[in-house]
Design brief:
By secondary structure, this protein is mostly beta strands. Helices cover 14% and strands 53% of the residues. The strands form 3 sheets. The chain has an 8-stranded antiparallel beta barrel with strand order 1-3-4-6-7-10-11-14. The chain has a 3-stranded antiparallel sheet with strand order 5-8-9, with no helix packed on it. Strand 6 and strand 7 form a beta hairpin.
Length: 277
């Protein structure tokens, strides 16, 4: 009896396992509806190809403009003055000299430029008898065979309203402010009693330059030649060159040496070349 029950239980268990496997197999099989959708998607033709992108627009070219100019100059420099600070004649003056210069210009806005300048020159002194209140012969040291000289430099800045004359030519007026420095080297004075030395001296000035100029493009937008003339009032003198000095002569006595002339003004003409940047 027990054996029969055991056989019946095993048969029921085996049937249940078979039914579960059949259910899982049916669940894993694709349904007819899903299979139909996949077949329809495969049979459907693909859409038209995507059109190519339009070409990129050309890069706009900015208009060219004159912004910065830098260059070098040859200058004719003339310093005016023949009296000391007390108004007494010094019996000497600075001869005109050829100098060199540098400049740079920046166009702030249309028709208005800002410029910086530098000019250096070395002036021989024209000596009349009795110059510097000395009866002897005055020469430069150590260049004893030549006349004494005065080195001058001027640097400053200007504003220049500019008028275009054509595509290549332009003109301008300028006004500015600057600093001038005068340097006088050592001098030797020869007298019958012997020789003695006068030490170097210097002077500084504040200048107010006024000018007019014109330029022309030798190579358009690249190279410019220009001519400028300026005159300056020299103010605010400082230094010991325009005051009497003291030295020891060949006999060991203290000697007063006259002052150099105080510069009252200057005229500078420059011829230069500029690179346009």
């Amino acid at each position: 009896m027990r054996t029969a029950r055991a056989l019946v239980g095993r048969g029921l268990a085996a049937g249940a396992v078979a039914l579960a496997c059949a259910a899982n197999a049916r669940a894993e099989e694709p349904t007819e509806a899903g299979a139909g959708q996949e077949a329809a998607a495969a049979a459907e033709p693909s859409g038209p190809p995507r059109p190519p992108l339009p070409p990129a627009p050309p890069v706009p070219r900015l208009p060219w403009g004159r912004h910065i100019e830098v260059g070098a100059d040859v200058a004719l420099v003339n310093r005016i003055g023949s009296r000391d600070t007390a108004g007494n004649p010094t019996r000497l003056r600075l001869k005109p000299a050829i100098g060199v210069g540098l400049h740079a210009r920046w166009e702030i806005v249309e028709h208005l430029r800002f410029s910086a300048f530098f000019v250096h020159a070395e002036h021989d002194l024209a000596l009349a008898p009795g110059a510097l209140a000395q009866p002897g012969t005055i020469t430069a040291e150590p260049r004893e065979d030549g006349a004494p000289s005065v080195r001058t430099l001027a640097l400053g800045a200007r504003f220049a309203p500019t008028l275009p004359l054509s595509e290549r030519a332009r003109s301008w007026l300028s006004v500015g402010i600057g600093y001038d420095r005068f340097y006088v080297g050592r001098m030797r004075i020869a007298e019958p009693a012997g020789e003695f030395t006068v030490r170097e001296r210097g002077a500084s000035y504040l200048e107010i330059p006024l000018g007019v100029g014109m330029s022309f493009d030798l190579i358009r937008n690249w190279l410019t030649i220009e001519l400028e003339t300026s005159g300056a009032f020299l103010l605010g003198q400082g230094g010991d060159a325009t005051r009497p000095a003291q030295t020891i002569d060949a006999q060991g006595r203290r000697r007063t040496v006259g002052a150099l002339p105080q510069a009252r003004g200057s005229f500078i003409q420059t011829l230069g070349l500029s690179l346009v940047l």
